[in-house]
Specification:
The complex is a heterodimer of chains A (about 240) and B (about 260). Chain A has about 240 residues and is an all-alpha fold. Chain A contains ten helices and no strands. In chain A, helix 1 crosses helix 2. Chain A is flat. Chain B folds into two domains: about 60 residues, no CATH class; about 180 residues, no CATH class. Helix content of chain B is about 80%, strand content about 0%. Chain B is built from eleven helices and no strands. The chains are: A mainly alpha (about 240), B mainly alpha (about 260). Chains A and B meet through helix 1, helix 2, helix 3, helix 4 and helix 6 of A and helix 1, helix 2, helix 4, helix 5 and helix 7 of B.
Chain lengths: ~240, ~260
C-alpha cells in the first residue's frame, strides 16, 4: 500500500515537473515583461491541477494500454504472416485516426477561408465545406499511405533516410508547381496530423514489428513511421491544391 | 463540472474510431483473445480520462492566458511603448520580446507534450537506456524553441517560407550523412511528434497575432508556417545532439587510449 502511494506521488511529481516550464514562462512574461497582474489565480491553479492529474493518468494508461496493444497486434500480425491484412490495418490506422483529428478539422476550415478569399473556390459556405472535406480526406489518405509505406519499409528493411530524402525532393518539386496559397497550409499539415493517441500506437506498432521480424533492429527499423506520416501529407496537400485550382 | 463532462465526451468521440479499428482487427482478423484484456482496457480508460482532464485544464488555465499574452506582445502599443498606434514601418529588432516569448513558449510546451513523452519512453526502453527520456525531450524542445523563434522572424520580415524549409532540408540531409545510424529514424520521428495538443494552439495564436499586426502581412497567407518550423528544427537538434555525444565519446576514448 505504502509502495503504491509513493509510486503515485512520484508520478504526480513528474507531471508537475513537466508542466513547470510553461507556468514559469507565462508568469515571467505576465509579471516582468507585460507588467500585468496574474488575473483569476484560482481558476489558473485549478486548471493547472487538472493538467497535472490528466498527464499523470495519460502516461500511466500509455504503459498499461496503448503500448501493449500496439505491440501485441504487431506480434500477432507477424505470426499470422498475412501481409495484406497487416497493410490494411496500417492504412485503416492512419486514415481512421487522422480523418477525425480535431487539429486537422480546424486547419482545413482555416485553409478553406484562405482559398475562398484568394478566389480559388466559390466563397459560399457549401464550396468552403466541400473544399475543407476534400482537404481532410486528402490528408487522411496520405497518412494511411504513409503508414503502409512505413510498414513495408520495416518488413523489407529499406534504409529510412533514402526514402525520406526522396520525400524531401518530392516536397521541393511540388513546391515549385503548387499554387502559392496552399504551400503554407501544406507545410503545416505535416505537423498537425499526428495526434496524442496515434503517436504511441504507431510507435508501438513499428517497434513491435521490428522486434518480431528476424534481422530487424527496433532502433534502426522500428522508428520512422511518424516521419512518413509528417512528410507525405505535405506532398498530397500540394497535389490537392494543384488539382483544385 | 459540465465543461469537464463535455471534454470527456469529446475525447471519447476522438478515441472511438481508433478503438473500433484496433478491436475490430483484433476480433475479426487476428481472432485471438487480447492478452491482458482487462489491463489494456483499464489503460485505455486512463488515457481517455487523462487526456480529457489535460485538455480541459489547458483550456481553462493556460490557453486563455497564453493566447492573450501572444496578442499583447505583438500589439503595436507594446512594440512601440505606446509611442503611436499606427505602425507604418517596423524593423525586425523591434520584436525582441516576441522572439524570446516564441522560443520560451516553444520550449516549455514541448516539454509538456504527451506524445513526445510517449516516444521518449519507447526510445529509452528500446535503446536499453542509452537514450535518456530527458535528453531526447530537451533536445527536441531546443529545436522547437529555435524553430518557432525563427518562424516569428520570418513572419516579421516577410521572407518566403519555402526558402527556410528547403535550407532546413539541406542541413538535415548533410547531418544524415554524418550522424550515428541508430539515431536517424528517431530523429526523423521527433519532428512529427512535437506539435500536438499543447504546442499548436499557443503557436497558432502567436502566428496569427504577428501576421495580423505587422504591416504588410496577411493573416491568411503569413499566419501559417510556424508548425512547419516546429516540425523541422527538432530533427536538426536531435541529430546534432547525437553527433555531439558521439564526438565527445570519441574524444574521451582517444584521451584514454
Amino acid at each position: 500500500m505504502k509502495k503504491q502511494i509513493v509510486a503515485l506521488l512520484r508520478a504526480v511529481w513528474e507531471s508537475t515537473r513537466d508542466l513547470l516550464p510553461i507556468v514559469v514562462v507565462i508568469a515571467f512574461f505576465q509579471l516582468v515583461v507585460l507588467h500585468e497582474p496574474m488575473a483569476h489565480l484560482g481558476s489558473l491553479l485549478w486548471g493547472t491541477g487538472l493538467v497535472v492529474l490528466g498527464l499523470t493518468l495519460f502516461v500511466r494508461g500509455l504503459e498499461m494500454g496503448l503500448f501493449p496493444i500496439g505491440e501485441s497486434m504487431a506480434y500477432a500480425f507477424a505470426r499470422k504472416g498475412s501481409l495484406w491484412w497487416l497493410l490494411a490495418f496500417a492504412f485503416a490506422l492512419g486514415f481512421g485516426t487522422t480523418v477525425a483529428e480535431p487539429a486537422l478539422i480546424a486547419v482545413a476550415a482555416e485553409a478553406a477561408k484562405v482559398a475562398a478569399k484568394g478566389g480559388m473556390i466559390g466563397s459560399d459556405g457549401a464550396a468552403r465545406a466541400a473544399y475543407a472535406l476534400g482537404l481532410r480526406i486528402t490528408v487522411a489518405v496520405s497518412v494511411g499511405t504513409a503508414i503502409v509505406v512505413g510498414v513495408l519499409r520495416i518488413l523489407k528493411g529499406w534504409p529510412l533516410h533514402w526514402l525520406i530524402m526522396g520525400g524531401y525532393v518530392g516536397v521541393v518539386v511540388m513546391t515549385a508547381f503548387a499554387p502559392k496559397g496552399i504551400v503554407g497550409i501544406a507545410y503545416d499539415s505535416g505537423g498537425v496530423t499526428t495526434s496524442t493517441i496515434t503517436v504511441p500506437l504507431v510507435t508501438a506498432l513499428g517497434v513491435g514489428l521490428a522486434m518480431a521480424i528476424k534481422g530487424r533492429n527496433p532502433m534502426v527499423d522500428g522508428f520512422g513511421l511518424i516521419a512518413f506520416a509528417s512528410l507525405l501529407p505535405m506532398i498530397f496537400v500540394m497535389g490537392y491544391g494543384m488539382v483544385i485550382h | 463540472m459540465a465543461a469537464l463532462l463535455t471534454a470527456l465526451l469529446h475525447t471519447l468521440r476522438d478515441v472511438l474510431p481508433i478503438a473500433a479499428i484496433l478491436f475490430g482487427f483484433q476480433w475479426f482478423v487476428i481472432r485471438q483473445p487480447m492478452p491482458n484484456l482487462r489491463r489494456v482496457l483499464t489503460g485505455f480508460a486512463y488515457v481517455v480520462v487523462g487526456l480529457a482532464l489535460f485538455l480541459e485544464g489547458l483550456e481553462q488555465a493556460l490557453f486563455p492566458l497564453g493566447k492573450l499574452m501572444a496578442h499583447q506582445l505583438t500589439d503595436p502599443a507594446f512594440i512601440l511603448h505606446g509611442a503611436g498606434l499606427v505602425l507604418s514601418h517596423v524593423s525586425w529588432t523591434d520584436y525582441l520580446w516576441v522572439y524570446a516569448f516564441a522560443a520560451a513558449i516553444g520550449f516549455s510546451t514541448t516539454i509538456a507534450e504527451p506524445s513526445l513523452i510517449a516516444v521518449a519512453i519507447k526510445a529509452r526502453d528500446v535503446s536499453g537506456g542509452a537514450i535518456s527520456v530527458w535528453g531526447l525531450r530537451v533536445a527536441v524542445a531546443v529545436g522547437v524553441a529555435f524553430g518557432i523563434a525563427l518562424g516569428a522572424f520570418r513572419i516579421i520580415t516577410g521572407t518566403p517560407l519555402h526558402y527556410y524549409i528547403m535550407a532546413g532540408y539541406i542541413v538535415v540531409i548533410v547531418q544524415t550523412l554524418f550522424a550515428p545510424r541508430m539515431i536517424i529514424p528517431l530523429a526523423y520521428d521527433s519532428g512529427g511528434v512535437t506539435t500536438s495538443t499543447v504546442t499548436v494552439p499557443l503557436v497558432t495564436a502567436l502566428g496569427l497575432g504577428l501576421a495580423g499586426t505587422v504591416p504588410g502581412r496577411s493573416v491568411l497567407l503569413d499566419g501559417f508556417g510556424l508548425i512547419a518550423f516546429a516540425s523541422l528544427f527538432p530533427i536538426i537538434a536531435v541529430l546534432g545532439y547525437a553527433q555531439l555525444s558521439e564526438w565527445r565519446a570519441g574524444r574521451a576514448r582517444r584521451d584514454r587510449g
